[in-house]
Amino acid sequence: MKTIIAEKPSVAREIAGLVGASDKQDGYLTGNGYFVTWAFGHLIGLGMPEDYGILGFDKSALPIIPNPFLLTVRKIKKDKGYIADPGALKQLKVIERLFNQSNSIIVATDAGREGELIFRYIYEYLKCSKSFERLWISSLTEKAIKHGFDNLKDGAAFDGLYQAARGRSRADWLVGINATQALSIAAGNGIYSLGRVQTPTLALICKRYIDNKHFSVTKYWQIQLLHNKELIDFKSISKTKWEDQKLADDTLKAIQRNETATVISVETKSVTEQPPLLFDLTGLQKEANKKLNLSAEETLNIAQSLYEKKFITYPRTGSKYIPEDVWAEIPNLVRALQDRETCKQAVSKVKWGRFNKRIVNDLRVTDHHGLLITDKIPSALNAKENEVYDMIAFRLLEALSQACIKEITDVGLQVLHYDFSAKGCKIIEAGWRSVKGSFTDDDTEPVQDLPELKKGNELKIKEASVLEKKTKPPVLYTEAGLLSAMETAGKEIENEDERKVLQNIGIGTPATRAAIIETLFARNYIQREKKSLIPTEKGLQVYDLVKDRKIADVSMTAEWELALQKIENNDADVGAFQKEMETYASTITNELLQTSIVHNLPQLVCPKCKSQQLIIRDKIVKCPDEGCSWVQFRNVCGVQIGIADIESLVNKKRTSLIKGMKSKAGKKFDAYIVLDDHCKTTFEFEKKKMK
């Protein structure tokens, strides 16, 4: 017998159907010489401090450097502690029995770093020594699974992948456990969670927020002219930016008296815009955030669902290319899209026989190739799944199209002794931009058509006006912007070629970035303000404490990601990496324990018993007297209540107007939170002003 172990029951069922294991049992399927079982994700993980006999937050026990690291069954919270998950224990017993009854194992967990770790931790925990092979596939279609079984790989070929996954897991433990305990002990008023990746990411958000808030906006003025030639209206803008409005107004009057502008230069150049490459996961998440306002986690979950339904290839990919052997399948994928109503018109724009092979690069494909659709075309998806699927399908069609060729014209004009410029653009060959019919990028102004202009032409000024403009602060991060910053370790890189050089040096991996962002939300370190990510009071407090510490160093975290990639490729030693992480954990623990923390929390007396000083935490404000038991949760209808409003509620019986709260029905509302005579909170709505 052989045991096939998948990551999820749904995948196990697909595989079981193909290998003839149709007999359903508790926790597995069997038949035709196979047991097919599953892992329910991470059944086994690294032990917690209590598994080493360290209870609570004990300064004398820090730093905690396990030797050896213990593996434990997944735990769930119960009462005030944690117990082994009964469901995990039950499934683990099934897996152990099947392993013992088998001659060998086929590993069918997700083909990536975490999927490898899920199996290897189970294998190690059960002290199993059976030989195993690896099913390595990028799609769950019947064809892909059959091809994978015909080409099973030796399990040892993925030892580097496992070492990198284990190294990452242990590094996160060493930094997260020690840093969190050290800062929480130093703070003395609650839990302050820190992490190897989450803290540098928080630092990016906080620094950008502070830079934005401290930016001094200044006004300036430019003059805009409207011209007409050959029945074409077009505009020019002054190169001079006036800091004094009166000077701009005076110049405008002089220009209006002059009435004509002279063309002093005309420069025309041809620009070739190559089509975009296929999506990797981060690219898809950025696009879905910009266009559909989906969070990184939402996009990943939707993509995972599409993958499990066999409509797209493996989503957790870091590549934008495909290998040569996949190229032969591309025409069939395009042909299949002709049957999808939303894609018909776009498919008609693609030039058969002239597909662009720019996406083919064997050297740029590691674990998985760029995101592709499969030949199974969906017909019954929900709205968000349809939108994400079409995003992937349209990107494939764009990537296969030819370059877009534009003719860009820069015109220099002069009025009196002031220089003006006009820009024009003409599409010579639409190429890939014809797929969606969009000829400019979202963040650029539409470029105007220009008439035929020559040096020396005199142009009548139809209109002239002064435009008031403002200098712009660094924009707050959206999830798309943050994902870009994480990709490049925070470096502001506009140049595509430079970005390519640094694309392997980032924070996290495509597969983990969504979880990192969600962790910051769960810790109440960041919140959404429309599309922007901004830090909470607690997030800013943590940043202020660690911003000059090594744990917030973005570039160091990026270097570790690079080291893990080298371990994965068998180009570096995992033992040396772990030693470095142990030294680092010790250093930051000592740094954080010596942190001097000044608490600026107000001293508030309980409004109910009027005798006890309130305990203020990030999630709750409460009276320490159990007989009184007054409590106020800080998160009200999805909005975190700030310290100033807590102080106002206790002392003045009402907060300021709290905006953006959500009802159970999902509707947004604004209200004051008020304390009634029994010290219970109610809402008071703003009175609408009579017109």
Automatic annotation (TrEMBL):
Tell me the first and last residues of the signal peptide: none
* Family note: Belongs to the type IA topoisomerase family.
Q: Check the record and name the PANTHER family matching this protein.
A: DNA TOPOISOMERASE 3-ALPHA (PTHR11390:SF21), PROKARYOTIC DNA TOPOISOMERASE (PTHR11390)
Q: What class of enzyme is it?
A: isomerase
Q: Name one Pfam family in it.
A: Toprim_Crpt
- EC number of this enzyme: 5.6.2.1
Q: Which GO terms describe its cellular component?
A: cytoplasmic replication fork
**Protein name per the record:** DNA topoisomerase
For this UniProt record, give its keywords in alphabetical order, as a comma-separated list.
DNA-binding, Isomerase, Metal-binding, Topoisomerase
Q: Does the keyword DNA-binding apply?
A: yes
| SUPFAM superfamilies noted in UniProt | Prokaryotic type I DNA topoisomerase (SSF56712)
What's the catalysed reaction? ATP-independent breakage of single-stranded DNA, followed by passage and rejoining
Instruction: List each copy of the Topo IA-type catalytic domain by range.
Output: 158-589
What Gene Ontology terms describe what this protein does at the molecular function level?
DNA binding; DNA topoisomerase type I (single strand cut, ATP-independent) activity; metal ion binding
UniProt cross-references to InterPro entries, sorted A to Z: Topo_IA, Topo_IA_2, Topo_IA_cen, Topo_IA_cen_sub1, Topo_IA_cen_sub2, Topo_IA_cen_sub3, Topo_IA_core_domain, Topo_IA_DNA-bd_dom
Which biological process, per GO, is one annotated for this protein?
A: DNA recombination
Q: What superkingdom heads the lineage?
A: Bacteria
